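Entry:
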Amino acid sequence: METVESPPAWPFRGRPSKPPSLIGLAVACGLALLIVIALIAYRSIVAFEESARWVSHTYAVMSTLGQVQGTHDRMRLAWRGYLIGGSPEALEDFRKTGEVLREQVTRIQALTAENARQQVHVGSLGAAIAEDLAAAETSIAQKSAGALEDSSAILAVLEAMHRSADRFAGLSEGIEAQERTLLASQELETAMQGAAAKRWIAIGSAASLAALALAFWLLRRAMARTSLAQARAERYAHEVEDLYNQAPCGYHSVDLNGVFTRINDTELAMLGYSREEIVGRMRHPDLMTPESAALYERRLEDFVRTGVVHGAEFTYRRKDGSTFIAQADATAVRGNDGSIVESRTALIDITDRIKAQSEARNLTLQLREYSARLEGINKELESFSYSVSHDLRAPLRAINGFALMLDEDYRDRLDPEGRRLLGVVRANAESMARLIDDLLAFSRLGKTALVSAPVDMNVLVREVLTESGNVSAELRIGALPQAHGDRALLKQVWANLIGNAIKYSANAVAPVVTISGGETPNGDCEYRVADNGAGFDMRYYDKLFGVFQRLHSASEFPGTGVGLAIVHRIVTRHGGRVWAEGQVGSGAVFHFTLGAGTANG
């Protein structure tokens, strides 16, 4: 308690009364002191009101920051869920949380508008969120386009997502630390002003007893202002209490023995208890499972030493016996001597997050196992395809050779039917040889590295047409956009598509093959080959780009059924896509796109 010094008494020395001039001087001094007291009281009230406003403002900023953190976690979970599972519900949840996140960032920017330093932190936080949303939109677009089917690509996105989450957490902690620093500074300044005001009021009151009536009038005015400020402070306190109780995470305080001294409604709802059942009756570890209670006791020594616990995970048991996992972040409250008098803890239910992380890890492991098995199967298939193709060449050459010898040496001894059958044998042997060549070419596409470079598609198409020889169809060729990719493979794409268009339009009355291209709205290059020939039935579209899948018989149009599969694989490896439309008897249009960037290896 501060010592109040009383003003010295007037030394009468036996005189019957004070000189009027001295009395007037004393009254004037008393009135001056009372005026000073009134000013100090007024300043104290204003400071108290300002402190209450800043306390409410700080808690509003911290509450909004907590909402941003929770919404950001849900957004990342929805993003991760869509990338891994492709769930439309996850995508919808991502869109909604993204909008909510933008609104919350705008709200926290408005709350910190008067603090230039916090605006820098909040701007960084908003930029980090914008980058996360942009990265999410990009990966979602890639996922929708089928460009993220490779597990390694998904893992890369997830790792980038984890790094951005660490950066986001650091920015959030910086904003919260700044707000707490501002609050502590304001409370210290208010306490110092209050102490000074009390000292001067006490001294002035003792020195101005002669002016009691005037002092009483001034004090009544000060008391009226104080009552008004107290009413405002109580209103602010109710608002802060409501923010505390309705916060999106649990909050509680415990004493040195771990007994609850305060707990908010959110945490009570988590636990299923009433406030009367917990406050003053239960210890914090009493609500945990035995394993978590033991972990709590072990970490208590670290908390006493450092005064802080961050990211501790405990399993809690509700009143109905069910359990949930929560993350606890605790801060020590110290007394004047520096010793800990209580602790304040924020509690966030992370059961769903832990479950999602576990599922994500399981899915990642499954994807890795699936990728490994798929890689092994692909290698086996490639080896099988290569081996079978080479093993078939020798008997085919023998069949074709012996058939040729029969045709040359024994042609005169064979009747027409025998010669026809011999021709069928040779034709089928040659067809089988072409099929083996196509199969080998298809299998090699998965092993050959792409050589990416700028490609002039107009020159490439002219080369293909020149090598095709005389073409009976009318050719209509438009300007084609430049591309970036493997020139040899892209030439094979054009050769297969143009060759098919010429082949399938050969029976038309006036065959026409149209080659055109352009740029899509998203900046990709699109190319088209159209004909007015036999077309195809869209009901069997799924077979169009499969290996050995034919929509027309070999007697109608010769071929091996591998050409379009080769086209599909080449375009896909370049990061593009290929599709077609057709109608029986009215021709077909084949499209393929290539990305604006370098082709993928």
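The chain is about 60% helix and 15% strand.
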